[in-house]
Write a structure and sequence with these properties.
Layout: E1 16-17, H1 18-35, H2 38-42, H3 46-56, E2 63-64, E3 70-79, E4 96-109, E5 117-118, E6 130-132, E7 135-143, H4 150-202, H5 247-266, H6 268-271, H7 276-290, E8 295-301, E9 304-312, E10 315-324, H8 328-341, E11 348-355, H9 360-372, E12 377-380, E13 388-394, E14 402-411
Parallel strand pairs: 1-5, 10-11, 11-14
Antiparallel strand pairs: 2-4, 3-4, 4-7, 6-7, 8-9, 9-10, 12-13, 13-14
Length: 414
């Protein structure tokens, strides 16, 4: 990131402008998004790509590990030609006398090149030091006949270095906190352009021939980070956008089902002895009342029968699985069953958990634990609900085909 640095002079925090370096990092992020092969970008889950870019272009600030420092001592020849306490006639050549060197090594975390970048605030008299690996080396030479008290000098020098690091940290924190939104914006802008281009080409009604030299893989540039983030895997096959059910409709379907909780509370005797099939029928009645009779139960889909299915034309737009709570293991099997039912086009699904007799907090804890332990789990989504969760899973067929899984817990009277 910082280019070639002359480390031999031992002057810190002067070589590069940190603000310019951070701007170059943002430019590099945008260029990487624009350089990705079109189908590679469109077939990569935007959330995964955003996380990769934010991690790759994040700058790790310096942190001195003062509790791990150590010192060394050795005899050396010291050049005293510029010593004002000595009369030296010829100062054009070294005048060596016996002396000593105390060397203090302070381990640190962070990008070592930051020791050579100045923040927006800096001084005209920067501190001195040498960076070797992950250690900052501070050297103090003195002739044997004029030994120096090193500790005050060391404390003063470290105070100045920490001051420069502090000036850097505020800039770096601002930069790092902006990366997620910058990556999201760059990805969305490129996806919008590519999809618009694709629509214009398709409107010609002429077959499009793919380039023979189109890249099939993407090589990740090497970085100096200890753990290099890798670009999320994705196919380079031609991207075909699929119609999706609007989020508003999905939320409405969930609300229709959540309203059943109020019905159960108001008429507990009617639901006391119902099994899964009977409860499902009540949900289907409510959904059909809202979605023009398009909801069905026990419908064959993919490799099994799903409990609740909403169709638009010849494709599925919403599926849900109904299960009584019988512990985390059985719930995990319900997730697997739902994923086997769903095709990659079923991007919005739900699991309805009927709880009869178990403490609600126990059920919620078991659901969250079992869900996040599943091999297809990608991330949890902030979804404020007192008895439900929302997660993002990847389909069994493609890690970049994401589906939203909402889990709702219903208390069924005993």
């Amino acid at each position: 990131m910082f280019g070639s640095i002359d480390k031999s002079k031992g002057i810190l925090f002067v070589t590069y402008d940190l603000s310019e370096t951070l701007r170059n990092g943002v430019t590099g992020l945008r260029r990487e998004v624009d350089a990705l092969e079109a189908d590679r970008l469109l077939n990569t889950a935007p959330e995964d790509l955003k996380r990769y870019l934010a991690e790759k272009y994040c700058v790790t600030p310096i942190k001195l590990l003062r509790d791990q420092w150590y010192a060394d001592h050795k005899e050396i020849q010291v050049d005293v030609r510029h010593d004002p306490m000595r009369w030296i006639r010829d100062t054009s050549r070294p005048v060596l006398v016996s002396g000593e060197r105390i060397e203090v090594r302070v381990p640190f975390e962070g990008d070592p090149d930051l020791f050579y970048a100045h923040a927006n605030t800096w001084t005209s008299n920067p501190p001195r030091g040498v960076v070797e690996g992950n250690e900052l080396v501070l050297r103090y030479d003195s002739p044997s006949d004029q030994p120096r008290e090193v500790r005050p000098l060391l404390d003063q020098q470290l105070t100045e270095i920490e001051q420069h690091i502090g000036w850097q940290r505020s800039m770096i924190d601002t930069h790092n906190s902006s990366l997620v939104s910058l990556a999201e914006q760059a990805i969305q802008e490129r996806r919008t352009r590519l999809l618009a281009q694709s629509q214009r080409v398709e409107s010609l009604g002429i077959p499009v021939r793919r380039r023979n030299d189109a890249p099939q893989t993407y090589a990740v540039p090497t970085t100096r980070r200890a753990v290099t983030p890798t670009l999320p895997p994705a196919t380079t096959a031609q991207f075909k956008p699929e119609p999706v059910w609007a989020v508003e409709q999905y939320e409405h379907a969930l609300k229709v089902m959540q309203d059943m909780a109020l019905v159960m509370e108001r008429s507990p005797d009617a639901f006391r002895s119902m099994n899964e099939e009977a409860l499902r029928q009540h949900f289907l009645v409510q959904l059909n009342g809202q979605f023009e009779g398009k909801a069905s139960g026990e419908t064959f889909n993919m490799s099994g029968k799903t409990d609740i299915l909403l169709r638009e034309g010849d494709r599925n737009v919403f599926i849900a699985e109904c299960k009584f709570w019988k512990g985390p293991k059985a719930y995990g099997e319900a997730i697997e069953q739902l994923l086997n039912y769903a095709t990659w086009r079923d991007s919005k699904v739900a699991i309805l958990v009927f709880n009869r007799g178990t403490d609600t907090s126990t059920v919620l804890d078991g659901i969250d634990m079992a869900t996040q332990a599943h091999k297809n789990f990608k991330r949890a989504v902030r979804w404020p609900h007192e008895s439900g969760f929302r997660y993002i899973f990847h389909s069994n067929e493609d890690i970049n085909r994401e589906m939203t899984v909402t889990v709702l817990v219903f208390h069924v009277p005993k």
